[in-house]
Write a structure and sequence with these properties.
Distance between the termini: 70 Å
Low-confidence stretches: none
Shape: globular
Oligomer: single chain
Order of helices and strands: EHHEHHHEHHHHH
Helix content: over 70%
Radius of gyration: 21 Å
Mean pLDDT: 85
Length: 311
């Protein structure tokens, strides 16, 4: 790339999702509604798990962390996007852009790893129920969750440090609605082959490892369920796993589509749509999936509401 138009930048301009006038009014209202649901559903799930003794199990311990990460991931992106639209402002400072990218990356990777940990938890609960509470001890739960956060932090810091090494950009206009790494790298004047290669390797490695854990866990789970003599037991086991599998398919599908292919195989608009799913839609869907399809959560919520009404 020619260096004559290259310069260091102090701020970036985010073009947003669409330049269609009608959508510029409709989309912010839609995202405000979605973020409101995300805010209430995820924080509500965390509060419910905390106050209900019925939900003081390893599965819901992990679910509370998933809700926290989903809330943080959405909060990293949506409020800034809504602020820009409402104030007719499209700029974000260089520091703000780097912080937003780092936080989003950290929370997204943590989400990915937590889903794998939850699959392992289901494996222990269904395949070895008698020793489940002993195997999934509080110490192991804390180690697994801490490992998720630590691994995500290391991966995100690695991407951030390499991004900060980029000396100049051909433009400060990012054709996206938040500071994601691929559109940022496309503006770099220097050679970013190492950045792109590392992005592909880290995303693919995380995907392969987590998918292997998930597939192996559910293979043993399915074998165990099919061996159950009780039809009610099989139905309950499948129902418990259905929510988790739904969340896995939606999240992993969008991540694989966006990041796990070398080069920029997708159009900008296609990447934007995929990004909307894992930054805006999925953080809203996860608590709804786990609450609407989970008898324990619905029963705990009913008891909490009844106790508040008659207290």
């Amino acid at each position: 790339m020619g260096q004559e138009n290259c310069t260091s930048v102090t701020e970036f301009i985010l073009l947003g999702l669409s330049d269609v006038p009608e959508l510029r009014v409709f989309l912010p209202l839609l995202f405000l509604l979605i973020y409101g649901v995300t805010f209430l559903a995820n924080l509500g799930m965390i509060a419910l798990i905390r106050v209900s003794s019925r939900l003081h199990t390893p599965m819901y311990f992990f679910l509370s962390h998933l809700s926290f990460v989903d809330f943080c991931c959405s909060t990293t992106i949506v409020p800034k996007m809504l602020y820009n639209v409402l104030n007719k402002e499209t700029t974000i400072s260089f520091l703000g852009c780097m912080i937003q990218f780092y936080l989003f990356c950290a929370f997204a990777i943590t989400d990915l790893l937590l889903l794998a940990v939850m699959a392992y938890d289901r494996f222990l609960a269904i395949c070895n129920p008698l020793l489940y509470m002993v195997s999934m001890s509080q110490k192991l739960r804390m180690l697994l969750v801490s490992g998720c956060y630590l691994c995500a932090t290391v991966c995100s810091l690695t991407h951030l440090c390499l991004a900060l090494e980029i000396p100049s950009y051909s433009s400060n206009v990012i054709n996206h609605f938040f500071c994601d790494l691929p559109p940022l790298l496309s503006l770099a004047c220097s050679d970013v082959t190492m950045n792109e290669l590392l992005l592909y390797i880290v995303a693919t490695f995380n995907e392969v490892i987590t998918i292997m854990i998930i597939l192996t866990s559910y293979l043993f789970i399915v074998i165990t369920i099919l061996r159950m003599r009780s039809a009610e037991g099989r139905c309950k086991a499948f129902s418990t796993c259905a929510s988790h599998l739904t969340a896995i398919v939606v999240f992993h599908g969008t991540v694989l589509f966006t990041y796990c292919q070398p080069g920029s195989g997708n159009s900008v608009d296609t990447d934007k749509v995929a990004s909307v799913f894992y930054t805006v839609v999925i953080p809203m869907l996860n608590p709804l999936i786990y609450s609407l399809r989970n008898k324990d959560v619905k029963e705990a919520l009913r008891k909490v509401l009844d106790s508040k009404m008659f207290s």
